[in-house]
Design a protein that fits this description.
mainly alpha; 2 domains; 7 helices; 0% strand; globular
Amino acid sequence: MEIAHFLFGIFGNATALFLFLAPTITFRRIIRSKSTELFSGIPYVMTMLNCLLSAWYGMPFVSKNNILVSTINGTGAVIEAVYVLTFIIYAPKKEKAKFIGLLTLVLTTFAGVALVSLVVLHGKPREIFCGFAAAIFSIIMYGSPLSIMVRQITLIFFTVYLLFLAEKREAYSL
């Protein structure tokens, strides 16, 4: 049974690796155009935080027998860090400053979770705390692309509003 568990873990890690590598097409475009265009970096920095917390959770001194969790999430954190650095290099100055602030918040959050788990908690409470933090930020990671949709929907409604306002003015001028 343990061999099957390990083999499914390897298969899961291979699948996750392909998911981490999926944005390479986007970043190739960013590098070629030397601009982040209208892309948002929020999903990448949130994925990096999720990978850092999940890799931390999988460490042997936090939870036992989760080395595959640590290896794939450690690899994912490195890949996401490359995406984040690429985004910072090619982002406009105004967006770059906000993004670096978000990155600082993310790294501070990870450092805080790691510090609390090392200094304050031991044994099962450490495992539960780190697992809970990883789960919460995993949910946030999957919700972070919605931040892009909110911006797009707001723009669409603003455009529609301007069209109706122009029609209304035109109707009154007749």
